Predict the structure of CPBP family intramembrane metalloprotease.
Amino acid sequence: MKKHVNYLLAASVFVLMLILLYGGSIVLAAVVSLFGLFLRGGEGLSAGYWFLLDHMNLVSCVIYTVPAVAFILWYWLEVVRRDGAASFARAQTKKITPAGILWTLVLAYAVQHAVSIIIGFLAFMLPETVAAYEEMVESAGLTDYSLTWVFAVVILPPLVEETVFRGLILHYLKKGGARFWAANLIQAVLFGIYHGNLVQGIYAFCIGVLLGYLAERYSSLVIPVMVHALFNFFGTLGVELESMILPEIVQMMLIYGCVPLTAILLVLIHYGVGEKRNVEHTEERNEP
């Protein structure tokens, strides 16, 4: 019975995330529209609509704030408080080494470019779907760079989504008795569904599997949050900077070169190349 409760809690986290995020979008749009209507009638209603469209990064920040508070508090009560804050902090960083950070930093860059191949394949198979996705990205404010953009793209989504999917959902699935590989696939599928469109859903599933593996490998959410944030950064501002600086042929070489690079980095991370000695020294220093 207890196992079923944990599976139900995992499902509840996912459903609540959808309600808070998408419901929050509807509530915010309704509030702004009613406010504009009250102040200036039909003209104010139109002004409110265009305000939201012109400030999508601000909208994203507002929408993510409620889930951030709700799920970070939930994670604190479920995991952090149980272990104790000091013990939890030590556990979150125990397996993280300079070499591990380096491998995962480069991995975020490599995976972002490797995803371009997936999108390219989808563009060949489903051109209209990918065109709609690209239009959605442009209208979502993902390329309107500012301090608000940093919070809306690089900070809040990774923090909230990792707490939800690689934190709470993965935690409850494993606590319910699911083996890691099964729990990881389930949370990755939910992560793909959460993104709400086919293109993002497919590559979000792949990224979700990777982030779940990293969370398990390092027994920490620190690395997944960092990789997720860098993935979002490289996929927006990073790509634009490359397009401005590098010739197209070099960009193509980078994209295809990042596929074997991703495989190599996963091997380095899995076997802890450059990490084991650091971890052993850390444990020796911590021995009484």
Summary: The chain is about 90% helix and 0% strand. The chain has one domain: 2-286.
